């Protein structure tokens, strides 16, 4: 079981959701070899800025706000991000599916879940294509 009790994680999640802040991503990771999670970063630079934290030895859970829609209807959508570094430990990797459920008790509202092991799997346009598919109205036909 992952320990997601750090109040900074929920505060950062709420900050990303708040339309009145510039913050559009947050990320948390494990404290050493424990199952305790702590905030490791947040910012306003989107997925590209979040990727600067991706390390091949780490597992990171993140939350990303993007703006979807077209000229008729722009709205925020949210993405639950899971980075599983290629060189993270076998046991850490094995626990990701179970620990994701614990993290989702705090990071509750999102349109899609995006998981990968290589930075190239976290391209903004690929994420947006999937967000548009699940997002409903798209009067520009950007699917």
Automatic annotation (TrEMBL):
Checking Pfam families in the record gives:
Cofilin_ADF
Q: Which UniProt keywords apply?
A: Actin-binding, Cytoplasm, Cytoskeleton
Superkingdom: Eukaryota
Q: Does the keyword Oxidoreductase apply?
A: no
Keyword Metal-binding (UniProt): no
> Of which family is this protein a member?
Belongs to the actin-binding proteins ADF family. Coactosin subfamily.
Q: What protein name applies here?
A: Coactosin
